[in-house]
Amino acid sequence: MVIVRKLSNQNPDRQNPAYYPVCFFYKKMKNDFEIENNSFARRHNKWLKKIVFSALFLILIGGAGTVVFLGLHKFQAGRISIKSIKKSWSEYDYQKVYEQSFSFLQKAPYNNTVLTYYAYACFFLSQAQSETQLAQEYLDESINSLRIALYTANKSLVPQLQYMLGRAYFYKNTISTHYYADLSIKYLLLAKENNYDAPDIPEYLGLSYAALGMTMESISAFTEALLVRESDALLLSIAEQYFNAKEYQAAEQYLYRIIKNCENDDVLLRSQILLGNIYINREEYDQALEEFNNVLQKNANSADAHYGIGVIYEKQGNIVKARAEWRQALKLQVNHADALKKMANN
Prior knowledge:
Elements: H1 2-9, H2 19-78, H3 82-90, H4 94-107, H5 112-127, H6 132-152, H7 158-175, H8 181-193, H9 201-211, H10 215-228, H11 232-244, H12 248-261, H13 265-281, H14 285-298, H15 303-315, H16 319-332, H17 337-345
Helix pairs in contact: 3-4, 3-5, 4-5, 5-6, 6-7, 7-8, 8-9, 9-10, 10-11, 11-12, 11-13, 12-13, 13-14, 13-15, 14-15, 15-16, 16-17
């Protein structure tokens, strides 16, 4: 009886002989599926994490690389090197060359290449200045740097530095109350002796000799300069030196060449003034007066022409008219040295 009750309470399907094998198979399949599914999920999550981490890593690397690249680019852009100075020089940006070289020399004050670029930039900047004091400051910096660069320069560069130093001293002589023409001559001659090829050396030498009153040396240098390039200004410089040497006939020949073909009004008027002075020294007063009047027709404010006419009147004994002309010269040019002297003595 007990056995019958127990069997009656059980699931009827369990009485089927296939029940237990099927249950066993079902459970096994279910377990296998869950295991496989969980394994796939774990693999999927693992790969997803790898992909996410890889993407984040690449983003970080890319960002870091961008930052580094921009930083290096900014560093290189702001970094002053000889290459950057040469680039500015090739662009004729002398102000930038000056600034870059100045900064570079704060750390390497005796770098010959940078010293040279700095000196050259100072020289060309001095030529661009309308203010004399500023031009002198640039020239002083140029001269100091060139002299230092000469000590350590390669032998092949020395003649060029000597030439530039000669030019710097020449221009310093033109704007300074002190004389530097002798130093200009010294370094220009050294450059010439070292076979530096610069066509303007003879002209610079001629002007420097003239500044020192070395008339014959000046004429010789100017004559050499004529073989390179003829100009009205150069012809006038030669005529002035012959006038100073009292070789009036030679001076007159050069002046005629200028007056015949000159298109520069300033050079033409200076030539006529000089020709008028030659006529005065020859006591050819009518011709002299004609030249000075020709000048006044073109430039009524020529103090030199009024001064010359005053000298003519003085030579002719008419001191009243002479003083009137000298006063007019001083009215036009208050610091006219010759007119001041005449007024003081007459």
